[in-house]
């Protein structure tokens, strides 16, 4: 399960899509960029359960950003 999920816009102009994301998964810290098309560019390591984690991130982003 993802914990301490955070996101912030990459650009000051909030009309431009793109968000910096960070979270903990299985007690390890991950960061990345969430693109407007839903793809994620990972900064550093990627989670072992990549498909599961990406699905959870999409759900968080839908709830918080696209509500």
Question: How would you characterize this protein structure?
Answer:
- The chain is of the alpha+beta class.
- The chain has one domain.
- The chain is built from one helix and four strands.
- It has a four-stranded antiparallel sheet with strand order 1-2-3-4, with helices on one face.
- A hairpin with a 2-residue loop joins strand 2 and strand 3.
Produce a short descriptive summary.
InterPro entries: UCP037692. The protein has one helix at residues 50-64, and strands at residues 2-9, 19-25, 28-34, 40-43.
SSE run:
EEEEH
Cα separation of the termini: 22 Å
What is the mean predicted local confidence, pLDDT? 90
Low-pLDDT residue intervals, each spanning 5 or more residues: none
Helical percentage: 10-25%
Radius of gyration, CA atoms, in whole angstroms: 11 Å
Shape: globular
Percent of residues in β-strands: 35-45%
Strand arrangement in the largest pleated sheet: 1-2-3-4
* Tally of separate helices: 1
Structural class: alpha+beta
Q: Could you tell me the number of beta strands?
A: 4
Number of domains: 1
Main β sheet profile: 4 strands, antiparallel
């Amino acid at each position: 399960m993802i914990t301490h999920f955070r996101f912030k816009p990459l650009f000051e102009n909030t009309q431009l899509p793109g968000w910096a994301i960070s979270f903990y998964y299985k007690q390890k810290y991950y960061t990345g960029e969430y693109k407007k098309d839903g793809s994620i560019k990972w900064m550093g390591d990627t989670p072992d359960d990549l498909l599961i984690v990406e699905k959870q991130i999409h759900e968080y982003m839908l709830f918080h950003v696209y509500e």
